[in-house]
Amino acid sequence: MDDCLFCRIASGEVGADIIEERPTAIAFRDINPQAPVHVLIIPKEHIPQIKDLKPEHCEVLADIFSLMRDIGISEGIDMRGYRIVCNIGEEAGQEVEHLHFHMMGGRFMKWPPG
Ligand code: 5GP
Ligand code: ZN
Predict the structure, then answer these.
(1) Which of 22, 16, 55 lies closest to 39, judged by CA?
(2) What is the predicted pLDDT for the residue at 114?
(3) Any idea which ligand is nearest the CA of 96?
(4) Domain boundaries, the chain
(5) Which of 22, 74, 84, 112 has the greatest CB tally within 10 Å of its CB?
């Protein structure tokens, strides 16, 4: 998708602070971090949101969760705790229409979220 920001980050056309990669997924730091650690994990393929997932996407989902596991360790937050957020659609505040998981840590989190 030429007009999708996260597709352009995944292809390298738009720069980002990439921290890790898997065959089908990539992780980079959020440009506007809401916590000391704020990483976005995305599929390289343009999948707009969860309703667009198909059975053949199990590998990409496995890559995404494997990345999040490893980033928890490499960022030093695996033992302290962290939050994974996936905003879906307008009411949840999804701004970028390319499936992504926020991984935030390094501070105490409130519940319920705003
Ligand atoms: P959403 O609101 O869609 O769940 O989250 C989109 C996230 O993408 C936001 O946290 C925002 O800060 C981040 N973001 C928007 N534009 C860019 C960008 O150009 N580079 C990076 N690294 N993050 C971005
Ligand atoms: Zn995209």
Answers:
(1) 16
(2) 85
(3) 1
(4) 5-105
(5) 22
The arithmetic mean of pLDDT across residues 56-64, rounded, is 96
pLDDT > 90: what percent of the chain?
A: 97
Question: Going by C-beta distance under 8 Å and a sequence separation of 6 or more, which residues neighbour residue 48?
Answer: 97, 98, 99
Question: Which atom of ligand 1 lies closest to the CA of 38?
Answer: 10
Q: Whose CA is nearest to atom 24 of ligand 1?
A: 31
Assign domain 5-105 one CATH number from 2.30.290.10, 3.40.50.2000, 3.30.428.10, 3.40.50.2300: 3.30.428.10
- State the distance from the centre of ligand 2 to the C-alpha of 41, rounded, in angstroms: 12
For a mutational test of ligand 1's pocket, the pick from 3, 5, 9, 96, i.e. the residue with the most ligand atoms closer than 8 A to its C-beta, is 96
Residue 41 has pLDDT above 80, yes or no: yes
The residues near 85 (Cβ < 8 Å, ≥ 6 apart) are: 101, 102, 104, 113
Per-residue pLDDT at 2: 81
Residue 46 pLDDT > 90: yes
